[in-house]
């Protein structure tokens, strides 16, 4: 007897969202913070702590929604996100500069 089940990894099951950065567009999941997914796509992001303490990974959020699985200790300026701990929850548009 053969099994017809096809086990899925959590990444396959995660919702996928578009991230627009200038003329670039990448797809991200809700499984990992935005920072690691930008890096994987070859988009360098400034960072120091990678844990929500320093705010050096702050990126302007032009539209869309992110959440934080834990409350970052760094101050998150209105209209910005902390890439190291932000989970993307919708299609978003971001910018590195004002
Ligand atoms: S790298 Fe320090 S808050 Fe993101």
TrEMBL record:
Superkingdom field:
Bacteria
| Residue ranges annotated for the 2Fe-2S ferredoxin-type domain, each copy included | 17-98
Which residues does UniProt call coiled coil?
none
Extract the Gene3D superfamilies matched here: 3.10.20.30
UniProt cross-references to CDD domains, sorted A to Z: fer2
What NCBIfam families does the database record attribute to this sequence? PRK10713.1
Q: What is this protein's name?
A: 2Fe-2S iron-sulfur cluster binding domain-containing protein
